[in-house]
């Protein structure tokens, strides 16, 4: 029962941070000029790239921090601040603005990174590894990206079903939840840093 509960917590938290539903209008906007087959190819590239990135940080994130002398708590504060800035930008403007991207690269930047896998997702994955262990973390990443793939495969009917108003509401709600999680990261990072040096 504890395993199921921890897995649910890890997967739901990561899903909120990755936020494929709230990002639907952004994905549609970024790929609106692409043919349907090219759009789906870009989405498949985004999912595979995002999945590999998060798996890499789940397996190697702590070693990278040790190599550069960075504590997880410093990363929590930095990632939380950046995540909070992104969330506020989405809440106020209602969108993520990007410079024009080449169609062949759009699946990698900005869809895979930083829209699907940004500092928040990386921080969440590393913290999940510390809190719940390797198996739950890897399973949560796998399940979330299966869900992302399903959502992106059926993005047009989902967008039409929700409508522009529905997707806007979901986007802002997810941004608000993300902002709350970001503040939690910042406060926890500051608290544990002060505790460590006190």
Summarize the main sheet: none
How many helices?
A: 8
The mean pLDDT is 85
Rg calc:
17 Å
End-to-end separation: 37 Å
| Broad shape | globular
What is the fold's blueprint, element by element?
Elements: H1 2-18, H2 24-30, H3 36-68, H4 72-93, H5 107-116, H6 119-132, H7 134-153, H8 155-197
Helix pairs in contact: 1-6, 1-7, 3-5, 3-6, 3-7, 4-6, 4-8, 6-7
Report on this structure:
With 198 residues, this protein is mainly alpha-helical. The chain has one domain (2-12, 36-197). Helices cover 84% and strands 0% of the residues. The protein has eight helices and no strands. Helix 3 runs antiparallel to helix 7 (134-153), helix 4 crosses helix 6 (119-132) and helix 4 (72-93) crosses helix 8 (155-197). The protein is globular, with a radius of gyration of 17 Å.
Short synopsis of the structure:
The protein is mainly alpha-helical and 198 residues long.
């Amino acid at each position: 029962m504890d395993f199921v509960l921890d897995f649910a917590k890890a997967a739901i938290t990561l899903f909120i941070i990755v936020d494929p539903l709230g990002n639907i209008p952004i994905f549609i906007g970024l790929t609106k000029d692409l043919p349907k087959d090219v759009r789906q190819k870009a989405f498949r590239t985004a999912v595979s790239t995002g999945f590999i990135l998060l798996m890499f940080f789940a397996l190697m994130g702590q070693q990278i921090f040790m190599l550069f002398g960075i504590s997880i708590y410093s990363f929590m504060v930095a990632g939380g601040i950046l995540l909070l800035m992104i969330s506020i930008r989405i809440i106020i403007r209602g969108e993520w603005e990007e410079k024009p991207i080449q169609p062949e690269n759009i699946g990698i930047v900005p869809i895979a990174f930083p829209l699907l896998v940004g500092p928040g997702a990386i921080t969440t994955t590393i913290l999940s590894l510390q809190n719940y262990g390797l198996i739950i973390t890897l399973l949560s990443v796998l399940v979330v990206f299966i869900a992302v793939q399903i959502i992106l495969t059926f993005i047009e009917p989902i967008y039409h079903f929700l409508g522009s108003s529905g997707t806007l509401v979901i986007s802002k709600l997810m941004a608000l939840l993300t902002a709350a999680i970001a503040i939690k990261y910042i406060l926890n990072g500051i608290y544990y840093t002060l505790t460590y040096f006190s």
